[in-house]
Amino acid sequence: MSDPGFEARDSAIAGLGLFATRSFTRGERIAPYQGRTTTTLPSHHDATHQVYALEIIPGVWLDGSPTTNPGRYANHSCAPNAELIWESQSAEAWIVAADPIQAGQEVTFDYGFSLAESLFHPCRCGAAECVGRIIAAPLRPQLRRHLRFSRPRD
Ligand SMILES: [Zn+2]
Q: Is the residue at 37 inside a domain?
């Protein structure tokens, strides 16, 4: 069998992670994100409370929870090297390299969680800029304010 260019194996971030088995250039497709579309938001699927749903358009989600979906193994990082992209022309979702990626590197993307979602999803990505929660990059300043605001006074 030919090497698909990626594999799922133990990750220091969480559970299984998606790892490149060859190098990828910026913009190159790494792994498909496969699932079925649904108009109800898929809920937490298993004991790890992982969420495997991509909102394609408002009110329509791609449920990527099947274990046959290679893309579901990609972890979130606060300093991601890839993006999850919906290609409307082909109606396919792909994890695409946002930076050059070397063989052996873990492939991560920004899960884009809301402030509310982030409160239930700690982040252990290990990046220098990690905010400690899985939250969309544009919302990170809000999270910092929120955490500061909610800190008990002494
Ligand atoms: Zn992080």
A: yes
Ligand 1 centroid – CA 86 distance (Å): 23
Spatial neighbors of 24 by CB under 8 A, at least 6 apart, are 5, 30, 97, 100, 101
Residue 103 falls within a domain, yes or no? yes
Residue 13 confidence (pLDDT) above 60: yes
* Cα 23 to ligand 1 centre (Å): 23
Ligand 1 centroid, distance to 142 Cα (angstroms): 15
Report how far ligand 1's centroid is from the alpha carbon of 99 (Å): 17
64 located within any domain: yes
pLDDT of residue 50 exceeding 70: no
> What's the gap in Å between 124 CA and the centre of ligand 1?
5
Mean pLDDT value across the chain: 88
Total domains in the fold of the chain: 1
For 137, the domain range is 6-150
